[in-house]
Design goal:
CATH class: Alpha Beta
GO molecular function: aminoacyl-tRNA deacylase activity; aminoacyl-tRNA ligase activity
Keywords: Aminoacyl-tRNA synthetase, Ligase, Protein biosynthesis
Helix content: 10-25%
Strand content: 15-25%
Order of helices and strands: HEEEHEHEEEHE
Shape: globular
CATH topology: YbaK protein
Strand order of the largest sheet: 4-2-3-5-8
Structural class: alpha/beta
InterPro entries: ProX/PRXD1, YbaK/aa-tRNA-synt-asso_dom_sf, YbaK/aa-tRNA-synth-assoc-dom
Distance between the termini: 33 Å
Number of domains: 1
Radius of gyration: 15 Å
Pfam families: tRNA_edit
Number of helices: 4
CATH architecture: Alpha-Beta Complex
Protein name: YbaK prolyl-tRNA synthetase associated domain-containing protein
Number of strands: 8
Length: about 160
């Protein structure tokens, strides 16, 4: 698969008329990276899969640990079936590598194999942050604008607790 680019992410935001703020910074590879700028909303982006090969993009606030038992209950899956997608699966489904996972890369899910899961707590955040397919910048936008971007990509998220 072709790798996701920053320009296509910015083009997507412009095509949906999203108002956003951009913050450039050194590359950030993990949530605990010392290069991470202070004061930005902290979120997690995860690509998960079950043993039947269903893919789930999970977007949640950083202060939430992933409770796999609760998540599998909400999704109607067996408890032992959910795990993190591999690096190869990240590239195959989203065109990104670890440290660059973002909802903006969902445009690469051409076969609609990835189900989008949004943590309910994102709704109350004044801004959410996401990478524009690279980890050297952060895009800040409203939760409502995120929903517009997802809709433009044909994605209907499932809200989880």
């Amino acid at each position: 698969m072709k790798m996701a680019t920053e320009q296509e992410a910015l083009d997507l935001l412009d095509s949906v008329s999203i108002t956003y703020r951009r913050v450039d910074h050194p590359a950030i590879w993990t949530m605990d990276d010392p290069n991470a700028p202070k004061g930005l909303p902290e979120v997690k982006n995860l690509l998960l899969k079950d043993k039947k090969s269903d893919q789930f993009y999970l977007y949640l606030t950083d202060n939430h640990r992933v409770n796999f038992k609760s998540l599998t209950d909400q999704l109607g899956l067996a408890h032992s079936r959910l795990k993190f997608a591999s690096e190869e699966e990240l590239e195959a489904h989203l065109g990104v590598v670890s440290g660059m996972v973002t909802p903006l890369a969902l445009m690469h899910d051409k076969d609609d194999q990835v189900k989008v899961l949004l943590n309910k707590s994102l709704e109350s955040m004044p801004e959410i942050s996401t990478h524009p397919n690279v980890n050297t910048a952060t895009i800040l936008m409203s939760y409502g604008d995120l929903l517009k971007v997802l809709a433009a990509m044909g994605k209907v998220p499932t809200i989880i607790n």
